[in-house]
């Protein structure tokens, strides 16, 4: 069951979910709440001369954190914003920290905004699930599939959080490789 704006506010008020900083009233839709883009982005760079460009996610000892650290660098979105060229992928973060209390019977999804998708901006490219018990800022995979460059600005509404009630309480809260995500810096 997807929570309505009233249900989301009730969940925030009773401590089942924390969204910080608290979204203003106009960020709530009938069944979701808008989240904003943080000031930090991770930009991918071309392989260095002589570096093996192949990524092997199923290879022995693979670590996504190490792979990203080797091929991406952090930047701060300045006052002029960051221009995302067509075909380019960047990693971003939500400005808001979202904490789903493990016993609250809530999970969530992060979905892109249709107003951005219609100009070619895909936000949270895949794996939209935010597991029960997750805590922290949400990392976003952002790609421009449109024909023109798109300016990203810190603080812009970039995605929607859709909260869903689970049928039961999980045995444990989320503790996978993305547990406690937060933007660097």
UniProtKB/TrEMBL annotation:
Protein name according to UniProt: dCTP deaminase
Keywords, sorted A to Z: Hydrolase, Nucleotide metabolism
CDD domains, per the entry: trimeric_dUTPase (cd07557)
Source taxon at top rank: Bacteria
This enzyme's EC code(s): 3.5.4.13
GO terms for MF: dCTP deaminase activity
InterPro entries: dCTP_deaminase, dUTPase-like_sf, dUTPase_trimeric
């Amino acid at each position: 069951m997807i929570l309505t704006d009233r249900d989301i506010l009730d969940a925030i008020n009773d401590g089942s979910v924390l969204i910080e900083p608290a979204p203003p009233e106009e960020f709530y839709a009938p069944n979701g709440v808008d989240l904003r883009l943080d000031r930090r982005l991770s930009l991918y760079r071309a392989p260095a001369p002589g570096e093996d460009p192949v990524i092997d996610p199923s290879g022995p000892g693979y670590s996504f954190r190490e792979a990203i650290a080797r091929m991406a660098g952090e930047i701060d979105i300045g006052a002029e914003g960051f221009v995302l060229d067509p075909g380019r992928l960047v990693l971003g973060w939500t400005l808001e920290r979202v904490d789903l209390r493990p016993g609250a019977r809530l999970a969530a999804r992060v979905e892109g905004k249709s107003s951005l998708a219609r100009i070619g901006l895909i936000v949270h490219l895949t794996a939209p699930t935010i597991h029960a018990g997750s805590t922290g800022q949400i990392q976003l995979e952002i790609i421009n599939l449109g024909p023109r460059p798109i300016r990203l600005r810190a603080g812009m509404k970039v995605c929607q959080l859709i909260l869903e009630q689970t049928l039961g309480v999980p045995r444990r809260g989320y503790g996978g490789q993305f547990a406690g995500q937060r933007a660097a810096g």
